[in-house]
Amino acid sequence: MKINFKLYSLLLLTTLFSCKDAIDIDQPGRLTDVRAFESIDDLKTGIYWLYDNLDWTPDMALSAMYTDEIGIGVQSGNQGLSQYDYILTPSSTASSAFWTGLYDLVNFANRVIEGAAVYTPTSDEQDQYDAILAHATAIRAFGHLKLLAYFTPASDYTNDDALAIPLVMKVPSITEQPSRDTVGTVFSAILADLNSAQQHIDTDLGLVGDANSYKTGDAITAVKAIIAAMRGNYNDALTLSETLVQKYPLATVEEYPLIFTDEIDTEVIFKLERTRNDSYDGQGSVGSVAAGGWAGAIFCFSGPTADPYFEVGRALFNVLEDGDIRKDVIVHPESVVDTDYASKTAGEFKQSDILYVGKHKGSEGQELMNDLKVIRVAEMYMIHAEAQAALGDLSGAATTLTTLRNARFSTPQLPFAFSNQAEAFGAIVDERRIEFAFEGNRYFTLKRLGPRANRDAVKDPKDCELAAVQNCSLSSSDYRFTLPIPLIEFDGNPNLRNQQNPGY
């Protein structure tokens, strides 16, 4: 994606600082907000820049490596073993990658918003101008939400007085050292941004790419449904998710695989489009939560069956059922399955049971490169079932979950039936595990719902033996399901040292 040089220079050189630095020297030739945004096209370029900085591969890598989705691959060079062993500290890549990456995104959004404030649109430009602000505001909300989701314990999502993350609603000065704001304050700001953005975000800006690769009113509704579930506002979660369940049809068994080869967008509410020669076209950070690059490169070096350093974990494979189209998508058809794998030595197992990840095989002729599906309508089915269960409608939750499950099989399945909420939540988490495998969902699912569902991250013993790890499971109540504030933040902001998350 080509970026306007004026805007690129402004963002690159002054990312974390305001236009007035501590010395307030007005250097000749300095690029100010006024000069960066001189037209509607400049502002649109700012939106391109924001979307170019949105990535979902770190979420996918975190969910795969810190839970029970993957096993060590036949071509492993010991990539990612510390993450695989559930080792998470303030110096871990996961901590710094999410913190710095998401605050960069928030700051970029604030720069576009503040830069737009110095531009006066004509009457003919007003609708586009409003839509540009809507996109920037929605992305700022998205960045803050992800920060809160990862860096705040799930038990505090409903506690307005608990500590969340520093809320950054303007371009900060070099001297600012913000402390963590409360959960209630941050959620209120996020929802205010989302509500404001939703009024104008569906105005057509003529942006390049598929419509659902940019935030839409429906994407905002989906995010608000997720927030409502996080907050325990289940009446709102039920209503918001119902709106999208009625609007977006589930894929048929024949259509479902085509979603993940980017041939159709059925079910997709919001995605991040990836294409040849864009900023993410290439091998990302190997075996790291920093990720980036092609989605499939989180697991393989060059091709889905050529040299995998991660494979489908045996614990995940063992819960996949024949006849479920999701199994055909999750596990590459060229995989080698050893039905007697448990009796093998670690060395034998590595060579006899090779389960290639099939969900990100590639598109446009480029192996491992696929669009990143951030929100599919299946998520709204899950939220809907969760809300029904939480509100005591166990039969409704069973029906909703059965409807989704039936869409993944060619023949009708036995309907769910729940005798209590714990059973319902357990089934929801189990179904999420299969539905969203390798899509960046498992970590957050276990963090948020695992304790209520009595579900943890549990690897297969043979995968653990092969990797020689100390920890083969991680309780969903463990403090490591909340990321620590990174050490690098303390260097510039010592105020946060006394606000570190529990356990670190």
Question: What does this protein look like?
Answer:
The chain has 504 residues and is mainly alpha-helical. Helices cover 44% and strands 5% of the residues. The protein has helices at residues 5-13, 33-36, 40-52, 57-65, 81-84, 93-116, 126-151, 183-198, 217-231, 234-247, 256-259, 314-317, 325-330, 346-352, 377-390, 394-407, 421-435, 442-453, 461-467, 487-492; strands at residues 70-72, 268-272, 310-312, 362-363, 366-367, 372-376, 457-458, 473-474. Strands 1-3 form a two-stranded antiparallel sheet. A two-stranded antiparallel sheet has the order 2-6.
Count of runs of 4 or more consecutive helical residues: 20
- The percent of residues in helical segments reads 40-55%
Q: Reading side by side through the largest sheet, how are the strands ordered?
A: 1-3
Structural class: mainly alpha
Distance between the termini: 40 Å
The main sheet comes to:
2 strands, antiparallel
> What is the radius of gyration?
23 Å
What sequence of helices (H) and strands (E) makes up the elements? Answer: HHHHEHHHHHHHEEHHHEEEHHHHEHEH
Average pLDDT across residues?
92
- Tell me the fraction of residues in β-strands, as a range: under 5%
Task: Give the overall silhouette.
Answer: globular
